[in-house]
Write a structure and sequence with these properties.
Strand content: 15-25%
Shape: globular
Bound molecules: NADP nicotinamide-adenine-dinucleotide phosphate
Number of strands: 14
Order of helices and strands: EEEHHEHEEEHEHEHEEEHEHHEHHH
Radius of gyration: 19 Å
Number of helices: 12
Oligomer: single chain
Structural class: alpha/beta
Strand order of the largest sheet: 3-4-5-8-9-12-13-14
Helix content: 25-40%
């Protein structure tokens, strides 16, 4: 896969990246997640993660996305990169701080993660992430920065992020919920010495939830790197989704997939890649089969008729996030 730059950050990435939310812990919200994990034993899950990383690397992917709250995802990724003596020049890893994993390796847990965007959490978690990823870690993102967390009004945290940036790390934020656009507009006003603090933003954007598109395009214009997450709507834009209310959208997707001799997941990812302001779309695959199916997106050229048809599949942002909030941890 051709290397490309993440906005104006100077970081080398590939247009498809791998997100490890489903690979680093026994429980996650994606449809059918539990079916993919052969065993919940930590060593077995590391072995599965390493197999998926091997297939991902072979497919040419060179951007990997983790987080402190993804259980042992950083450790699985770090141990895989070190074991293969991969040069840090040849790969870019992004991770996230602000959520602490609390599920104690259980699928069912009262709290899977605790959110706290404070200076002590940032200072603790950057040490933990560097401990697991070392020089591979190049992009550090606030995890799901939302207006209610108040993180963009926390001067002590912003100053610490500016200090980490001066030390050579690229700084980003990930967004979530119906107010992604507002949050990004606010982030685009934060400067240090006349320079934007944030080098990149990670946001949910797909054919069901395109509401943040306009502000993401403006952020890209301003030089930020754009990373898209949940491009498959947590599995709802895959063959797994047999919900009756999805039939109409599914028929349109399948029609386009048949024409391009591929799967509806690859069409959904190609639709994201067709947006001129996207640098990286994340695959959230937890199996080799799904990685190989997802990366077919890189060779799909959707024509105007395809794009017009897919533009018409959007849900209201409210409806999208309500449906997402009901997805069970499995
Ligand atoms: N707030 C944040 O910062 C945030 C939030 C969410 C996600 N993310 C990042 O974005 C990445 C991707 O997002 P995501 O995993 O949440 O959601 P996603 O990419 O929208 O959905 C991935 C789901 O689709 C399934 N899938 C993929 N290809 C398939 C196929 N061909 N057939 C059937 N099922 C298929 C995967 O199943 P398998 O698991 O079976 O492969 C997985 O369950 C995450 O790993 C994470 O790095 C960040």
């Amino acid at each position: 896969m051709q290397p490309t730059e993440l906005g104006k950050s100077g970081l080398s990435v590939t247009r498809i990246g791998l997100g490890l939310a489903a690979l680093g812990r026994p429980g996650y919200i994606n449809l059918g997640h539990s079916n993919d994990l052969q065993s919940l034993d930590q060593d077995a899950m590391q072995a599965q993660a390493h197999k998926v990383l091997g297939a991902t690397w072979k497919a040419g992917i060179r951007y990997f996305d983790a987080a402190r709250s993804y259980g042992l995802a950083e450790r699985f990724l770090g141990s895989w990169l070190k074991a293969r003596d991969i040069s840090s020049d040849g790969v870019t890893v992004g991770s996230k701080w602000g959520y602490t994993y609390t599920a104690d390796w259980q699928v069912e847990a009262e709290n899977h993660e605790i959110k706290e965007h404070s200076l002590p959490v940032l200072q603790r978690q950057i040490k933990e992430s560097l401990g697991e990823l070392g020089e591979y870690l190049k992009l550090y993102q606030i995890h799901s920065a939302t207006l209610d967390s108040g993180v963009l009004d926390n001067q002590a945290v912003l100053d610490e992020l500016a200090r980490l940036k001066a030390d050579g790390l690229s700084i980003g934020l990930s967004l979530s919920g119906t107010k992604q656009a507002e949050m990004l507009e606010k982030a685009l006003t934060i400067e240090y010495d006349g320079q934007l603090l944030f080098d990149g933003v990670q946001a949910t954007w797909n054919m069901l939830e395109p509401s943040a598109g306009e502000v993401l395009a403006a952020a890209h214009q301003a030089g930020l790197g754009i990373i898209i997450k949940e491009a498959l709507a947590n599995g709802r834009l895959t063959p797994r989704n047999d919900q009756p209310q999805f039939t109409e959208q599914r028929d349109i997707l399948e029609g386009i997939a048949v024409k391009h001799e591929t799967g509806i997941d690859a069409v959904a990812l190609a639709y994201v890649l067709a947006q001129g302001w996207v640098d990286v779309v994340l695959s959230g695959a937890a199996t080799i089969e799904h990685v190989l199916s997802n990366v077919q997106a890189i060779d799909i050229q959707l024509d105007e008729a395809n794009l017009d048809a897919l533009d018409g599949l959007a849900e209201s942002s409210q409806e999208y996030w309500e449906t997402r909030s009901k997805l069970a941890w499995n």
